[in-house]
C-alpha cells in the first residue's frame, strides 16, 4: 500500500476501487461500479464526526492521540481544541495539505503523510495512549487491516485504546468493500494484538442528502429494502450503519 492512495479489491488485483488523492483534489470519482462520477466527499462534515464528539465528552480520549486516515483534519483539530496532543496522518498528500491549513495556536496538530500499513515516521515519546480511526479501517483489504493493527502496537503505549468506526457487515457487503466487515471477521483480526472491549452498532453521520445517497449507491438502494439500511439525522443528512469498536492493546 506504500505510496498508493487507493483501495484494491479483496483478491488484491484489478483496478483500484477508489483514488483518495483524486477525491481530495476535488476531481470526480466513482464510489462504486454502478455509481456515477461525482466530486462529493461523503464523509466531509466541515466539523468533527458526532460519534467522536460523544467519545471525547465521555472521557474516552486520552492524549497523546493518533488519528489514522484523518482526511481533511476536522476530527484532529477538534480533539486538539479540547486540549489533547494530536498526531494525524493520511495517505493522500492533498488531504494533509488541506488539513494543515486548519491548524491554529488554539488547536495545534501534527499532520503527516503516511501509509497505515507501515506507519513510518509516526511516533511520540512514550507512545500514543489513544488511537482514533474514523472510517479508515474498512478501506483496507484483510491483509492490510492485519498489518495496520500490528503496526499500531509499535507506536502505542501499553494498554492504549483504539476507537474504530467502520462499515458494518450488511452495508459493507452491498458496497463491495475490500474485506469482510462482519463481527467474526473483525474480531479475528483484532484478536492478534487487541482485546475488543466494546463492539456495537451505531450510525455514522455523512454529508449526503438522501438523493445524493441514492445516486452514489444504486447497488444498495435498488436492492429490496435497501434504503432501510440508512437513516436521516435532524439535518436530513444520511446516517450509515457502522460498527463502533473500542479495543485495548494487549
From TrEMBL:
Residues 65-159 form the Methyltransferase domain. GO terms for biological process: methylation. Keywords: Methyltransferase, S-adenosyl-L-methionine, Transferase. One of its GO terms (molecular function) is methyltransferase activity. It comes from the Bacteria. It holds the Pfam family Methyltransf_25. The keyword Transferase applies. This is Transferase.
